[in-house]
Amino acid sequence: MPPKRKAAAPAAATAAKAGRTSALSTPGPATPRSLDSSMMSDADEDLDEDVTEAQKEREELLGKEADEFVNNWAISSKRFQNQGEGQKRDAATPYFGKRDFSGLPLKSDHHNRPIWIDPDKGTIVLERFNVLAEQATDFLITIAEPKSRPAFLHEYALTTHSLYAAVSVGLRPKDIINTLDRFLKTALPSSINNFIQQCTNSYGKVKLVLKNNKYFVESVDADMLQRLLKDEVIGPLRVQGSDAITTTYAPTMGGLVIPGTKNAAGVRQAALQKPGDKPAADTAKDPDLFAALNEEDDDDDKEAVHAFEIGDTAVETVQKRCLDIGYPILEEYDFRNDDVNPNLEIDLQPNTQIRPYQEKSLSKMFGNGRAKSGIIVLPCGAGKTLVGITAACTIKKGVIVLCTSSMSVVQWRQEFLKWSNINPDDVAVFTAESKNKFSGSTGIIVTTYSMVTNNRERSHDSKKMMDFLKGREWGLMLLDEVHVVPADVFRRVISSIKSHSKLGLTATLLREDDKISHLNFLIGPKLYEANWMELSQQGHIAKVQCAEVWCQMPTEFYDEYLRANARMKRTLYAMNPRKFQACQYLINYHEARGDKIIVFSDELYSLKKYAETLGKVYIYGGTSQSERMHILANFQHNPEVNTLFLSKIGDTSLDLPEATCLIQISSHFGSRRQEAQRLGRILRAKRRNDEGFNAFFYSLVSKDTQEMYYSSKRQAFLVDQGYAFKVITQLANIENTPNLAFASPQERRELLQMTLVDNEKGTMEDVETDDLFGKVGGGRGRKKKGLAARRTAGTLGELSGGQDMAYIEQNKGANKQLKKNQKAERDTFFKKLAREKERNRG
Amino acid sequence: MSGTQSYQLSDYLEKLPATSFRKLYQQPSTAFAIFRRMLPMLAKVFVQALLYMPGPLPLSQLDDIWVKPEGRMQRDRALAALRSLHVAQITPPGKDKPQEIQLTTNFKNSMRLALEGGGDHKSFGVPSTLPIDPTVNIDFLDRYSRKKWEDILHYVVNSVGVSSDMGGGGGGGGGGSISGSSPKTSVKDLLLAGHLVDRRPDSKTGIVITKTGFTFLLESANAQVWTLLLLWLEASEQRSGSRMDSIDQLSFLFMLATLELGRAYDTQALTATRQNMLPDLVDFGLIYIPRDKRQYFPTRLATTLTSSTSPLRSVSEGFAAAASNASGDAASLGAPASVVAEAKGTIIVETNYRIYAYTSSPLQIAVLALFTQLNMRFAGMVTGRLTRDSIRRAITYGITADQIISYLASHAHEQMTRVAASTGRSVLPPTVVDQIRLWQLESERMRTNAGFLFRDFDTPEEYAALSVYAEEIGVLVWKSNKKQMFFVSKYEPLRDWLKSRKK
């Protein structure tokens, strides 16, 4: 066991950066979190519930341990560095400091090889125009983290996590090193060689398998198991009386068919010819299929594996212990041999075909015929839901789906019904409003994170439901938008609900506070990450033109801005009248083109002000569920409603394929994730495959304010994905816009006065804590004043009326207008919704 | 780029009076050099035609024989060049007599001598009769001159004080024997005087590159050499205060251009003026002088002064490897414009502001370092990134956004040009180009208002009343209650208002 090093050492500090998914100088994960977000804090507002001190401490401790582990295993850690390896110096060397690797000799045929690797940090540079680029890309996506993927040269980073993922999908160290060497222009630096050797030696060697409902610790290396058995913690946890070590043969993909793939179609035909056969099992012994789905694994066929059994209760201890001693454990689920949990009748609709990249990602998950736990990263709109559903259809056991909001709970359920042949009664929903169980012996439960982690008083129904969830064994746990959930919540979810395999889905595996790395150990490695640009070129997601519009602050506003406090500054740059005009201009322009527009504002005051002044509909945290539904339906179907203002509740999981244009007027500091998520709202545009179609993404920024700085930070992720933000400093003919708002200095001054007065009085809440799934304002409860919205802490369920909370109507303008016509315009969507509700009650 | 180069020399020559030219053309080597270097193609044809002509030739005849009607422009240009360099005389147009052209006497005689040989003018150098050190071969001279020249360029880009080994990078120029050093103080002073660099005490090396310096870097080596030599000539002119020496010095430079590479020449056969020049020319890397000082060897930098082949490329193998490895700037070091245009570009600019340059030339890296934040270096490849800070730093040196953009565009990697050609878009990502310009604009935000300042009021009340009135009618631009002064765009309404109040 490597000696633990304190993070205080500078070497460890830099190493931590290399190990993490992002190298931003944000507070390290081990830093205690404070609940009040200071101005400069980049910490995202996430599902941080009112955790008790004890829990926080525990999380910190665990976090620290994981950190230390990561630090110990970073490449620049001394243990891998072979000092004095061919350093060559010349006049240009000082520009690079230690990062001059020109001493590494090039191979004679280096022109035909596509990659370089930096022996210090493991950064890999890939030539996309090289003949071998395609193969190299496939290989690198498996072993390294993609960092930058524009047109010509891509950058990847070799990290402990990425190697962990590579090992978990079945690559062996030997293969990794050989293949890497084959693609490298230079000789393989010895530090990298050591790094891979040592990481992979410790990674992925031990697996935790739930077989016949008993937990086994499994390894191909018998010595390893012996070592574990001798370990003071793990040894005693072995189930007494069972064989010390059993030996079987490693599983293979052998006939497992992921539904929705081409092979699946063939299997179905075969199954039809042989009625009575179990569907999709042992029918296709197609070697091609095997090769296609899992090229890397084919040597594993005949390998012996060894295992010993541990008790159910010991699982977490063993996992933790294995992490401590440097052998993180992989979880696998041999679902085909699970006879205890009943099978679920579910299959994809016959006409469903999954896309190549979805197939690729799933083949990583089901690589050896078992289900591995892990995370799949696909851009928004690229069909994450379908990947989840296909995984459910492959495992065919009880499934629990966790999403971020009750809105997406409804969407998930609909998607299940749409893509699979599951009996609607078997898809149950557990939210504040409806708590029903499925009819059969097994089924699917869709719920939210907050419902299952809520540890305060529950209603009788919820409590019963939770007991039901906890009392069962689930085959698959689908974790939607996995990036938003802090480690602590995960621990609670995972400890309370028992599942054999976990699949996390997200578009943006980044958090400004870098807590992502812990997900690797809590859920599993990142199994797959798609390339945004490639998908958009192939037409799977929309092509987007991104632009940043610079809006001058009028002098009087800027004056105030300079004097204002941090909160007021934010309000002021959002309320910049020039920004307002730009927004108005862009809305006019795009409505005339026939686009459907979403305008995002984090700032509630400006959201309302903009929407009301322009006479558009808006949704924010305080909008009731039924009103939200109503507005969304109108936005989708009513040709009169083309622009929708959304607060940050719309950032994620909102499926609006009609939207083709997006304008962002205020945003959450430098959150790269929010930017990417918002862009995701227009990636699934229905019209994306029309000739020459482009979706538009505008980010309006007040010039010379902090917004400029945040904006460049926010774009970092998308820019690295190959998106280019065009800066627009002047909108042509903006002054000719009819009814241009705040055109006169007089009006501008009035706006300024109003903004200042309104916000000083505090009548308007500028901080929205409802993140679609109810952020509880632990200790932050703000006293409401005057006639403003009543503000109470609560979950979304409560906010949406689930617990009979009363609301004060405060929406004016377009929202109200819509409401008036509500009765008359009640469309099919709501009828359907009502019917469903009816049925759920019954 | 050779265009820029010729201009510079011609700019200098144009300033010279006719007498200087007469003196210059006494040397056959000078006449020959001017003929080779300074004349347009058609003018050379004219010279050849006129050279052995016994008397003046009517201009109309010249036109009939050698000029096509559509070549009128070229003919005019050729004649203008001949006249301004005092190579030929053309009689003024008159009613009675047709215009005639003839070569100037000195030029004609020297040119004939240059072609025929003979005479004891020693204009083409006197080869040394002493034995030659066998180690001083062409390969050695090439490395020597390249080293000297790169030291100067490195000084310009601020990378002095760092030991360099020939700059061949992985190419293996076989260097190491000649260690890197910063150029002589005299050369530094010259660069300062020419405003190629400026003193800046706050910078690491005490000097920073200027806008002119950046233009200088982008030129071909030939042009660079001439720029420096002309600076030197002007400086020496100022020192001595007479032009006579500088004429001799200039002819010596032209003479050097006609010497043979790898051959030793006799130092003693030179005039005193020319002998005095030798140490400086050694500093520039134009000549090499062995320890006994009785011989001098012209280097490629010198022998190619008036030709169009590249001075810094050699046939020797190691050097060729280095040159091809360090294409881009190193290739443009002396490569004529046509070659530069065809040379493989090295730089890839991505939409995420990352820069990848396929180069191992320390010099090109140093140039990149002027406006990029460099990150990693591999054999034959460097990575970096354009940041707001790195561009702004370059801009504070006086390098303009357009210079950076044109540098990136002219050195763009073939992959970029190919993709650009196939998609019909610009070579550099437009967002990056825009952003570089915007970064420059950030520092140019001063706006001036013409107007009138009111101050020194008798009473604060008067100030208050008038400034309030100015604000009301909207002419007030700025006011300071503390200083009791304000600034308006128009004063007439205030004047009228004051008058009306006084009444």
Topology (elements, then pairings):
The complex is a heterodimer of chains A (842) and B (503).
Chain A: H1 10-19, H2 53-72, E1 100-101, E2 115-117, E3 123-127, H3 133-143, E4 145-148, E5 153-157, H4 160-168, H5 173-183, H6 190-202, E6 206-211, E7 214-219, H7 222-230, E8 246-249, H8 262-273, H9 287-293, E9 304-310, H10 315-324, E10 329-333, H11 356-365, E11 371-372, E12 374-377, H12 384-395, E13 399-403, H13 406-419, E14 427-430, E15 444-448, H14 449-453, H15 460-470, E16 473-479, H16 487-496, E17 498-506, H17 516-522, E18 526-529, H18 532-537, E19 544-551, H19 555-563, H20 566-575, H21 577-593, E20 597-601, H22 604-614, E21 617-619, H23 625-637, E22 643-646, E23 661-666, H24 672-683, E24 695-702, H25 706-720, E25 725-728, H26 745-761, H27 796-799, H28 814-820, H29 822-825, H30 828-841
Parallel strand pairs in A: 6-10, 12-17, 12-18, 13-15, 13-16, 14-15, 16-17, 19-24, 19-25, 20-22, 20-23, 21-22, 23-24
Antiparallel strand pairs in A: 2-3, 3-5, 4-5, 6-7, 7-9, 8-9, 10-11
Helix pairs in contact in A: 1-2, 5-6, 11-12, 16-17, 19-20, 20-26, 24-25
Chain B: H1 2-15, H2 18-24, H3 28-38, H4 41-51, E1 57-58, H5 59-66, H6 72-84, E2 88-90, E3 100-103, H7 105-116, H8 138-156, H9 185-193, E4 197-199, E5 207-209, H10 211-218, H11 221-240, H12 243-258, E6 265-266, H13 272-284, E7 287-288, E8 295-298, H14 300-303, H15 317-325, H16 329-332, H17 337-342, E9 347-349, E10 354-357, H18 362-371, E11 373-378, E12 381-385, H19 388-396, H20 401-410, H21 414-423, H22 430-442, E13 452-454, H23 460-472, E14 476-480, E15 485-488, H24 492-502
Antiparallel strand pairs in B: 1-3, 2-3, 4-5, 6-8, 7-8, 9-10, 10-12, 11-12, 13-15, 14-15
Helix pairs in contact in B: 1-11, 2-12, 3-7, 3-12, 4-6, 11-12, 20-22
**Biggest sheet: strand arrangement of chain A:** 14-15-13-16-17-12-18
In the predicted model, the low-confidence regions of chain A spanning at least 5 consecutive residues are 1-51, 270-301, 763-790, 804-812
Highest CATH level, the class of the domain at 544-756 in chain A: Alpha Beta
Uncertain spans of chain B = 1-7, 160-179, 313-343
Strand numbers in spatial order across the main sheet of chain B? 9-10-12-11
What proportion of the residues of chain B form beta strands (DSSP E)?
5-15%
CATH fold-level name of the domain at 544-756 in chain A: Rossmann fold
Shape of chain A: globular
Name the helicity range of chain A.
25-40%
CATH architecture of the domain at 544-756 in chain A: 3-Layer(aba) Sandwich
How many strands of chain B?
Answer: 15
* Structural domain count of chain B: 4
Profile the largest sheet of chain A. 7 strands, parallel
Distance between the termini of chain B: 72 Å
Mean pLDDT of chain A: 75
Radius of gyration of chain B: 29 Å
Percent in strands of chain A: 5-15%
Helix content of chain B: 40-55%
Q: Write out the CATH superfamily name of the domain at 544-756 in chain A.
A: P-loop containing nucleotide triphosphate hydrolases
Number of strands of chain A: 25
